[in-house]
Inverse folding.
């Protein structure tokens, strides 16, 4: 008999920028329609028993989108058609998995016209509809037949079609949490949680533990040890699950399965009955018996630790994706039976419950259905939740020490050690010390602590550690930067320049046609004044988290032999200040702005903002660079969102006018 424990981990980071109630990402909607809803229905229909783990940040975004407290900009694209939607379309499309988009020949053909300046409003509307249609898992047509009808229509979607599609998405969102709550009440699933904003808790507890792991990396020279933050993350996970599902979760899956002895001691202070971890960690523990299939391990007799079978978990996550799905399900059942033979053994499978399935030949529609049905009917397999598993009649082995590590091994190399990740730890350390110094400011301390917890998310450090496209790194660094900046602003001190400099991206811009020397008065007084300047396409600067209500409509720059000139066209006068930064010198210019026109040295404000800056202030050995910071009542806008505009000044021939 195999006692089979399966845990599906559902996770997404917090995508909403500080001070905003808008979600400028397509990922939550995609995962809700492609994973969370159909996964719940498959469990319900098969009668399988297992554990579903939700991160608090994911749950809160689903709940608040369903209740209308968060404005999902991706869903909002279905509400009205606009020629300006092309920037959103490109950004949201880039976030959707290529494998999913390629399943629609129509979307592929239409998307090829996105870079055409002549793309019609109707074709853009069809692209938007198809971007949403591909988000629905193939099984969703069974529950929402209108989806299949829209797919058959193909092109020429009407506003009514868009409204139907939006209504389906809103219905699915409002049903997700009740669906899982119903599964809990029926006894089919157990809900567990991950602490807070998905932190690597051993590093938050004491970053120096990284030097005692099996790593070859150089660790950042910072002091960072905040056990109280670990407790805050744990409490957030428990309270979020309780408030949403009405039950106190009995179990935890620590972010990335990362644990240490100190962290386990902290967990002991809560009414947690079990946690999950990886068998690689147990393999290096100082304990004589290490067979995770014949014993239930506990931490100092306080709670159980279920060590995931690495081989079986990877088989589902990586191996079966290339197989015929029915054969893969049969093979898995066979291997589970062989695993126990005539013995009674425990098999714990823990893995990502969302990312693997898009790689399966039929998107796991056959694999999961067949596997669930065969497992439920197999007399040699007993599926259960992890809370039920801890009560099995197996010998108990108590652990009192454990080596630090994660599901990826006895190290934390995917979150610390690379130069980019280490710089983030340095920035976080400085911000955390600043918050600690202002702990007496009770009126804002709770919000400061929440921002710190957000900044401790493992996702930021992951994307600075692993090979990834520049756009992806910039996406996550931009949000990290915004969170840290908000911390300093709430405290009332200037944001350190290191926050903007830490991950320096250079955005190459077009050269002006020739030198310009405009009058700095806040007006385009003459057509030729800026005619030779270079326009910077601001719509292409954001890969995600784009401020779609950006009050800047156009941006120009140019120069002569002495000065750099910048012109900012705006849609409304909402700015309180403007600043120009360079990589070499930090802030090289700043000025307050109100609603009344004015002209001062180096700045004019009226129908636009015109600024002049001595060239030497923006230069270094590699050329010239600059970035713009605009303050509004809603927060700060940085253009570009990370890094600097970079260019090498040219020497133009003297222009002669006869």
């Amino acid at each position: 008999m195999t006692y089979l424990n399966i845990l599906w981990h559902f996770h997404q980071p917090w995508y909403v920028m500080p001070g905003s109630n808008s979600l400028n990402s397509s990922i939550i909607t995609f995962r809700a329609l492609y994973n969370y809803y159909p996964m719940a229905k498959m469990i319900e229909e098969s009668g399988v028993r297992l554990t579903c783990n939700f991160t608090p940040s994911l749950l809160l975004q689903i709940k608040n989108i369903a209740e209308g407290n968060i404005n999902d900009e991706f869903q909002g694209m279905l509400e009205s058609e606009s020629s300006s939607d092309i920037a959103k379309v490109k950004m949201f499309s880039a976030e959707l998995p290529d494998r999913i988009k390629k399943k629609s020949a129509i979307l592929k053909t239409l998307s090829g016209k996105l870079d055409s300046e002549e793309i019609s409003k109707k074709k853009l509307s069809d692209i938007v509809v198809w971007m949403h249609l591909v988000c629905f898992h193939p099984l969703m047509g069974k529950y929402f037949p209108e989806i299949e009808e829209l797919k058959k229509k193909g092109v020429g979607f009407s506003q009514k079609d868009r409204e139907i599609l939006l209504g389906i998405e809103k219905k699915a969102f409002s049903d997700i949490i009740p669906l899982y709550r119903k599964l809990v009440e029926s006894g089919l699933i157990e809900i567990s949680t991950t602490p807070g904003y998905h932190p690597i808790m051993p590093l938050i507890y004491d970053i120096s533990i990284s030097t005692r792991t099996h790593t070859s990396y150089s660790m950042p020279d910072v002091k960072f040890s905040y056990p109280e933050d670990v407790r805050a993350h744990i409490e957030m996970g428990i309270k979020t699950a309780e408030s949403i599902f009405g039950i106190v979760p009995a179990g935890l899956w620590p972010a990335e399965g990362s644990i240490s002895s100190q962290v386990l001691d902290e967990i002991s202070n809560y009414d947690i009955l079990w946690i999950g971890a990886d068998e690689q960690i147990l393999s290096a523990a100082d304990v004589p018996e290490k067979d995770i299939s014949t014993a239930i391990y506990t931490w100092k007799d306080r709670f159980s630790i279920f060590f995931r079978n690495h081989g079986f978990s990877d088989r589902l996550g990586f191996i079966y994706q290339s197989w015929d799905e029915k054969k893969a399900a049969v093979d898995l059942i066979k291997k589970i039976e062989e695993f126990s033979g005539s013995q009674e053994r425990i098999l714990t499978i823990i893995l990502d419950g969302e990312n693997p399935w898009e790689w399966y030949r039929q998107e796991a529609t056959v694999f999961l259905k067949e596997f669930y049905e065969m497992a439920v009917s197999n007399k040699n397999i007993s599926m259960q939740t992890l809370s039920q598993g801890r009560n099995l009649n197996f010998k108990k082995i108590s652990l009192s020490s454990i080596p630090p590590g994660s599901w990826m091994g006895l190290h934390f190399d995917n979150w610390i050690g690379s130069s980019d990740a280490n710089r983030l730890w340095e920035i976080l350390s400085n911000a955390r010390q600043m918050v600690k110094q202002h702990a007496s400011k009770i009126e804002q301390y709770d919000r400061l602590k929440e921002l710190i917890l957000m900044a401790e998310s493992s996702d930021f450090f992951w994307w600075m550690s692993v090979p990834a496209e520049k756009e992806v790194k910039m996406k996550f660094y931009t949000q990290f930067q915004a969170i840290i900046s908000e911390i300093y602003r709430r405290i009332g001190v200037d944001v350190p320049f290191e926050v903007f400099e830490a991950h320096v991206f250079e955005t190459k811009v077009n050269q002006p046609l020739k030198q310009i020397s405009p009058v700095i008065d806040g007006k385009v007084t003459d057509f030729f004044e800026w005619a030779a300047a270079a326009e910077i396409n601001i719509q292409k600067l954001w890969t995600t988290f784009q401020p779609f209500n950006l009050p800047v409509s156009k941006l120009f720059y140019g120069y002569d032999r002495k000065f750099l000139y910048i012109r900012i066209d705006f849609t409304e006068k909402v700015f309180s200040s403007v600043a120009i930064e360079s990589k070499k010198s930090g802030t090289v210019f700043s000025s307050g702005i109100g609603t009344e026109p004015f002209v001062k040295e180096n700045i004019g404000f009226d129908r636009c903002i015109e600024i002049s800056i001595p060239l030497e202030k923006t230069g270094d050995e590699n050329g010239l660079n600059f970035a713009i910071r605009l303050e509004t009542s809603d927060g700060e806008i940085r253009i570009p969102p990370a890094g600097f505009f970079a260019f090498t000044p040219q020497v133009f021939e003297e222009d002669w006018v006869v």
